[in-house]
Every structure is written in C-alpha cells, then in structure tokens.
Amino acid sequence: MLGKRGAKPAGRENSMGTVVLAIIFRNMFVKNNLWLEFGFFLAVCRWHSHCRGANLLCFVSVFHTTSFATKGTVMKSRLLALAAAAMALFVAGSALAAPIVYEGQLLPGVPTFGVNTQAAANQANPVGANYFFFTSDGGTPITIIGGRLEDHFDMSFWILRGLFNDTNQFGTTFDGSDAGFVAFADDGISHPGPFGDPQFGPLVIGAGTYTLAVTNFFSDPDPTNPNTNPFVLNASGVTGVIPEPASIVVWSLIAGVGGAGAYLRRRRKSA
Asked: Strand locations in 163-259, DSSP E?
C-alpha cells in the first residue's frame, strides 16, 4: 500500500507538463541569452528524474540559439561544444535502459516462481525488475498475490496494461503517470519479515494483456546470498490466452530451445 512507510514510491513528474512549462519559462525570461538558456535547461535536467526529455529539450534549445547568436567563429565553436555536451547527456540518459524479457505467463492456480536480484530501495526501478504477463477477460475479478520465499525479501510489484519491449518506455522509474498504469502493490499481506507481501485485487479490470513487474522495496540484507530474492506469484481470475507480440515470441523461442536442449541431453544420457 502506498504511504505505509511514510513515503510514496519514488517516481517522476509528468514529463510533458515539465517540457511545456520549461518552454513557456524560456520564452518569457531566458530566450536569446545563451548562457541563461543553457544553464536553465541543465537545471531542468538535474531536477527532472525523467531526464531524457529534458536533455533533448536542452539540446534543441542550444541549436535554436545558434541561429541568432553572434556570427564569430569562436562563439559558434562554443555553441557547438555546448550542443555536443547536451547531446551526450541525452545519450547517457538513454543508455541506462534495458531490454525487457518476460519470464513467464501468470495462469490461474499455477504458481509462478522467480528470483529478483535488485538491491533494496529499487521499488520503482524498471531496470532489474522481473517481468511477467497475464490476460484478463474483462469480467472476472483478478487476484494476484506475491509471496517471498526468503524472509529478508520485501517484495513489491507494478501492474501496467500492455506489453513492453524496453525499460525506456517507462522512463527512469515506474510511476502512476505511466501509460497503462493499473496498480502498485506492496504491503497487502502481513509477514514476520520486513514489512508485508503484495496483493492486487480482487478487482475487475478491462479485457486485454497486462504486465506485472516485481521489484525490491526495503529488503533486509542477506549476508549469505546478497541480492538474491526468490519469490512466487499466485493468480486467480486470469485467462490462459497467450498473446504473441515480438517480445513474447522471442521469449517462447528461447524457452523452446532450452527445453529441446534439455530433452536431447537426457536422451544422450539414457542411450
């Protein structure tokens, strides 16, 4: 539950709103002044956790300023250097992303296991989360319960409508303003370990395919196996329909190749 620990999970402000306000402020106060303009947009980048949009805005702004700046060669060189620096910030922000590989589908009455390797306090970090998917018929109440398999793991999960290919689609953090956001589940079920286990529902949600991302909230350290956090997911009310976007097809092919390899190894041993 949000707020149970005294703070909402770390997130980001609405990126489009930030960009619009930045443009208005720029046009009113810092337009046509290269140093004020560049410094202002660097401050936006620093403040705004969804930095890719702000860095790109900074990059565009510097190039825009170039069109009416002093025509001297030295000034142009400085402008190009500043633009290159802004572009480097933009690229660096994008480089933190990671491709999303779904580990499995949640099926009714079938436990689904996983191991989270995030450090504590990564409850809103899409990088390193464990991704699963499930489908809804739009009429049956759905319940999903997450259970830690080691007492130290303080588990949480996010539910979003749709399937995703890359963590860039969430920005630097999960947040309630993400497209398709459905719920964040945390301390729904009491547990003797640190805090509680997450539960979603029972709740009727629209028909379609959904993503569930498991994250690490405030786990205790495990001196034996650091950042090794096993868990199980149990779902009811979900359907067995299997979607086939590119990411799921790739995941299925990998699973199929792995299964075929294991089968052939068993055959060789028995021969």
From this structure: 181-185, 199-203, 208-216, 229-236
Q: How far apart are the C-alpha atoms of 189 and 212, rounded to whole Å?
A: 18
- Report the C-alpha gap between 39 and 42 in whole angstroms: 5
Domain identity same for 43 and 177: no
Q: Cβ distance 214 to 68 under 8 Å?
A: no
Neighbours of 139 (CB within 10 A): 10
Determine the Cα–Cα distance for residues 60 and 184; give it in Å rounded to an integer.
Answer: 35
pLDDT at 140: 97
Are 82 and 121 in a shared domain?
no
108 and 218 assigned to the same domain: yes
Last residue of a domain, one of 48, 71, 95: 95
Query: What are the tens digits of pLDDT across the range 207-244?
Result: 999 999 999 999 998 778 888 999 999 999 999 888 76
The list of the chain residues with pLDDT below 70 reads 1-96, 244-271
Write down the pLDDT at residue 78.
Answer: 54
Domain that holds residue 191: 102-256
Identify which of 131, 104, 133, 107 has the alpha carbon closest to the alpha carbon of residue 239: 107
Note whether residue 218 is domain-resident. Answer: yes
Q: Count of domains in the chain?
A: 2
